[in-house]
Design goal:
Radius of gyration: 24 Å
Strand content: 15-25%
Distance between the termini: 31 Å
Helix content: 25-40%
Shape: globular
CATH class of the largest domain: Alpha Beta
Number of helices: 17
């Protein structure tokens, strides 16, 4: 953001309470700009005068709007922005597709992109991965479809500006970021911004099966299109699942998109992602042929149930993007529903977002397919260990680890020991352990502390299994 502001001719005062040592990686990236004296750094503190005298404040997402310095700026009627609000005001295209939800945003965004590109449309992904939002502006023309993944934080900036995208998709609402939001209603309020300020010629695509999301229909002037895993003629679902097929019903026109068996990306949660993308692109007039071609060819994206490879009879999966208990449970269920004869060796846990870990603990204890689990260190990991023990699953816990390599080694040894028992036909070895061995990273927790972010966590997992198992990673 700082580089972009300087490129626009701004004089920037960059202020952060963190120490210079902690900020070293970021400061290294700004060396040239700092040397040219285009940026003034205020490290280890904030100065009230900076917030009183600026023409504009650009807020970091993690800083709440109730922050005392932000309040000082607003009291002085100084404009407070985030990258999302600036982007919407400066974007040359009005064809912005905003996608939000607790989970499924990124996968849905990539599916939408795939469909539109199959139809010959120009697209740009924004807010996905680690590429700066404002740097995307130079790639956008008037007729570009902009697919913007909108977190609740970025939506909070749009709420202050009373801005919603022309096209909106809401995937689901679960408790999340409760370390930031004091109550769930505040989180939902920010999420609702995506439809709140839409106009009559806008489109809102909503998950009918999620009660919170369904209620968004009452808060928008846009045309609402629902998708559902259930068919009901009492409610018009534009896209739904029936008899193992994804079907559509738009007015008098109805038919089949494809069968669930044709999808390469498995799991009920991914079917929801496909339906969300299909519902919007149908409304945009994309042909059934292009939609089907795109979705049956879609193989998924990194860190989301990503198949890393197989070695020594072990199938390796990276689901580092599962940062909530519900997301982790959904990932585990994908394997169990597909084939009940699986042996899952799980890496879970990590840092806390003050989420209830009971659903993940229940799954670990109750699912006989989960043989062993290593818990990553952090407050969420500690809570998970306590819950698993309380629910009677202590024997499944191999241990806690603060290093990914160590966690992988622990489970590699457990798999090896189980295989040795199988070969020896030991009485310790049960018939149900005859299935496929799966080593799965699906934390259900945040990554900060031990890892830089969820992408770093996923990368460390892939690097570790490469070394431990000698697997050649898939490209």
């Amino acid at each position: 953001m700082i580089k972009w502001l300087v490129q626009q001719g701004a004089r920037v005062v960059a202020t952060d309470k963190k120490s210079r040592d902690v900020l070293a990686p970021s400061l290294n990236k700004l060396k040239k700009i700092i040397k040219n004296k285009k940026v003034e750094l205020v490290i280890g503190r904030h100065r009230l005068d900076d917030f009183r005298s600026a023409d504009m404040i650009v807020k970091n997402p993690m800083i709440p709007w109730s922050n005392v310095y932000i309040k000082v700026a607003k009291k002085k009627h100084i404009d407070v922005e985030m990258d999302s609000s600036l982007f919407f005001q400066l974007c040359p295209s009005k064809k912005i597709i905003g996608i939000t939800g607790t989970k499924g945003k990124t996968t849905t965004a990539h599916i939408v992109k795939e469909i539109l590109e199959k139809a010959g449309k120009k697209t740009v992904l924004v807010g996905v991965g680690q590429i700066a939002v404002m740097d995307k502006l130079k790639s956008i023309k008037k007729n570009t479809y902009v697919i913007f993944e909108l977190s609740s934080w970025r939506l909070s900036a749009l709420r202050y500006k009373k801005i919603s995208p022309r096209y909106a998709i809401v995937t689901n609402i679960y408790p999340d970021h409760l370390n930031y939001y004091k109550k769930m209603s505040s989180y939902i309020k920010d999420k609702m911004t995506i439809v709140k300020y839409q106009k009559k010629n806008s489109i809102a695509v909503l998950n009918y099966d999620d009660k919170e999301v369904r209620n968004f229909a009452d808060e928008t002037r846009a045309k609402v299109s629902f998708y559902s895993f259930k068919d009901s003629y009492s409610i018009i679902h534009d896209v739904y699942v029936d008899e193992g097929q994804i079907k559509y019903r738009l007015g008098a026109d109805e038919g089949v998109i494809c069968s669930l068996d044709e999808l390469k990306l498995k799991g009920e949660h991914n079917v929801y992602n496909f339906m969300a993308a299909i519902t919007l692109t149908l409304q945009l007039g994309i042909s059934l042929k292009n939609i089907k071609k795109a979705i049956i060819g879609f193989k998924g994206i990194p860190h989301r149930l990503e198949f890393v490879g197989t070695a020594k009879g072990v199938y390796l999966y990276n689901d580092s993007a599962a940062t909530t208990p519900e997301a982790s449970v959904a990932g585990i269920d994908t394997f169990i529903q597909k084939d009940s004869l699986v042996n899952i060796y799980l890496i879970a846990g990590g840092s806390s977002k003050k989420l209830n870990m009971n659903s993940l603990a229940d799954k670990i204890v109750e699912a006989e397919q989960i043989k062993k689990v290593v818990i990553l260190k952090g407050l969420a990991g500690e809570e998970l260990v306590k819950l698993i023990k309380k629910k009677g699953g202590e024997k499944k816990i191999v241990g806690m680890s603060g290093e990914m390599m160590e966690a992988v080694k622990f489970l590699a040894q457990e798999i090896k020991s189980a295989e040795e028992r199988r070969e020896n036909n030991s009485s310790e070895f049960n018939d149900e352990d005859q299935g496929k061995n799966i080593l799965l990273l699906s934390p259900g927790s945040a990554s900060f502390g031990v890892f830089k972010n969820e992408f770093d966590r996923g990368k460390q997992f892939k690097d570790s299994v490469k070394k431990v198992f000698g697997v050649k990673l898939k490209k």
